[in-house]
Amino acid sequence: MKTQKRSATNVIGDMKVMSLIIIVILLLALFIFFYLNKTKFYVPKVNRTLKEQLGDLAPVCGNNKCEQGEYSFNCCLDCGCPHGYVCKSNKCVVNEELVKISRSKAIKIFKQELTNRGYIIKDVNKIMLEKQPGGYIACYDISQDLNITDQVCLMIYNNGSVSNVLIRTT
Q: Which of 137, 109, 102, 134 minimizes the C-alpha distance to 124?
């Protein structure tokens, strides 16, 4: 009987084919395994609501209990608001009753204070006022008059007094 000699390239070629067959068999086995067991694996839903994620443990806004996860900024109905603010439509807003100084008087005081401190206000319409409990925060963009990008702000209290100057960079 005559034996054939096999070359090294034939042996390597056969090994590549066998490796490919083994990989295909493994992939097929994994596919079958996961397909048959798909109900046993938990796949989390994306963009689920807090109620869906926590079930009965989720906080409920409006039940008069300030629960974990509820704060004045996201549920003032249950948690209330900081001093000087009231809850309206589930948002904390400035309690208007605590702002006893008129807008025009606050602007007049602000303009006088800045003038006393060496600032010149060319356009009173560019004074920005924001209601706060106890008065207004008034700001003026001093970059309109100088070559800088800052605002000067004061708290104008109900009694007409003012805070120290606050310079904030914008």
A: 109
